[in-house]
Amino acid sequence: xxxxxxxxxxxxxxxxxxxxxxxxxxxxxxxxxxxxxxxxxxxxxxxxxxxxxxxxxxxxxxxxxxxxxxxxxxxxxxxxxxxxxxxxxxxxxxxxxxxxxxxxxxxxxxxxxxxxxxxxxxxxxxxxxxxxxxxxxxxxxxxxxxxxxxxxxxxxxxxxxxxxxxxxxxxxxxxxxxxxxxxxxxxxxxxxxxxxxxxxxxxxxxxxxxxxxxxxxxxxxxxxxxxxxxxxxxxxxxxxxxxxxxxxxxxxxxxxxxxxxxxxxxxxxxxxxxxxxxxxxxxxxxxxxxxxxxxxxxxxxxxxxxxxxx
Length: 310
Known about the structure:
Blueprint: H1 3-25, H2 35-64, H3 66-100, H4 105-136, H5 140-157, H6 169-177, E1 179-180, E2 190-193, E3 196-199, H7 201-224, H8 231-243, H9 245-252, H10 262-278, H11 287-308
């Protein structure tokens, strides 16, 4: 991709993140969005990703011809679908963090607003490092494939227990550098009591959100390497998945118990992508087939979750 398209996308990203932050900070009391508002913004970001895909296809068709345009547009859409589906699993982690630290709904948007900026920076660093390593050491793709395969098997067969975060490594680390309090003071990350500065549960939750997103990136970014090693496609598909994450959370937060079976679908996607990466020297799976399989798994397990909910 040319430097211009990187520049245009960066400008779009800064504008989108700034607008998103402005909307959150200027919402009355940072209120929890209604289902209708959250659904609107979730559809808005999904539509934005699809529009971007069309614009990317038109640009590449003009610059490089139909073949490359079709290939890159399909890679973006498949990568976006992978990242979007894997991000749903991360939403369950966010839900657990907010639940354990008793974060009021009206303050959750503020945490997401700061968390998205941090996630964008972390993703860029992970992607650039990953592309550089894979370009130089192609065999790393097979290690990534094995890692994704084992991760998928673990998610599918082993029940994950809800962890007590109050005595986790992150809490112990934070206590070494700052004083913590269980009290809230509006939507502030710090409060001052008798002249002493304390970090509120909002800051603690933000640290957990950022850490979980880093772990999520180490899972999801290797998965897209099974589709493409083009850094711009990896970067842009990741970013669009992140931009819609906050709205999607508020859509699903009230229905999160209804989609418990979806994690098994996500596990199967990881297994499929891992196997695809491992057999790459002998069998090339076309992107069209990958897209069909991933979409079928998502739809099947979403319907299954809906039909079997109590």
